[in-house]
Amino acid sequence: MHIMNKNSNFQPDDYTESADPPTRLTQSIIEFCRFARSNGLSAGVTETLDSLKAIQAITIGDQVAIKFSLKSVLCSSKDEWDLFDNLFQSFWHGAEHQAPLNRTRAESSQPTAKTALILGGQSHAIQSPQDSGKAVWGASPNERLQKTDFSQVPQNDLAALEELSLRLLKRMSLRLSRRLKAVKSRSQVDLRRTIRNSISHGGDPIDLRYRGKKLQQDRLVILLDISGSMNPYSLFLVRFAYALGKHFKRVNTFIFSTHLFEISHLLRTRELRDALQGLSQLATGWSGGTKIGQCLRDLVSFHGKKLLARNSLMIVLSDGWDTGEPEVLSAELASIKRHVRKLIWLNPLLGLDDYQPITRGISAALPYIDVFAPAHNLESLLQLERHLRAAR
User: Fold this and answer.
1) Which of 59, 102, 177, 303 has its CA 20 to 30 A from that of 109?
2) HSE of 328 in the Cβ direction (CA atoms, 13 Å)?
3) What is the model's pLDDT at position 182?
4) Whether this model's pTM surpasses 0.70
């Protein structure tokens, strides 16, 4: 069943039969949860993942079931329950809605034009006449999307950013994986292999075989902060980790808040939607507090011997807000720094003009960080290629 703005000129035929319905459904639900959060609901990453899980259990064409499934997951108070119907009608049907109850940093994620969506489909923005063809500061659409803060992406740009980010992150990951592939040192001829190979050429050593040490591909160790303060960024950064995991043989990914969980196996799926579905099954601390030092201690204790070595590059994706003791964070980073080749910390808050790294967590971490860079938009994430090249 198609749910869309009845006044728009959007037609069901705009979707081809070759499109993938589960992917479109996942995208639509994520967009609605983001829209609801920016317009008064307190739903975070946990509720978004629960919404994806709930939708799997009902018939996609049943609009009433979908509405009440989302309502039961996303609303945690009577005020939110009363507000939900208006938001649902506004998002899926393009009706007018009241002003947000709480204006947050994600304020600009409200639709700038009425949006027509298909339940189970990706979003297709319906531009108003005055928005048609309008440029932003002279930038092309792709340039603008790459520079937009994840927490401020307009609702009608989410689908385009999703497609662009997956495409560009895939290219970056492929280039990096090829550049860091194992190579052989051609320093010494391997006589045994050369003679064995020459038999097919009548005994003439036409093709020399070399003996040398194989250089292993670098190992990436990724730690992604999923605490409450990272809500506007977590799902975008999961896609970042997913793209790296698809193209590196030696990558281990963890999520953390007050506890540490490895999700490497969940990110080795063929499709991103399958990875998100797997993440929704985890009873983790999504949107909770943060104890970075304790989580790093668990990493060293339970995974250190396997993962922390001179060919390891650690990437921490976190805003540095820590409720633990800074002394613990300092001690664990000092230990990790002695074992890995480079420690890269990507902080979404560095994208803010007035940000200063003065919180207890970041202050404790800075002396041990080799690269401290932003991770607030697609452009900043693509800079990882430069950081890793420098690490070589």
Assistant:
1) 59
2) 14
3) 42
4) no
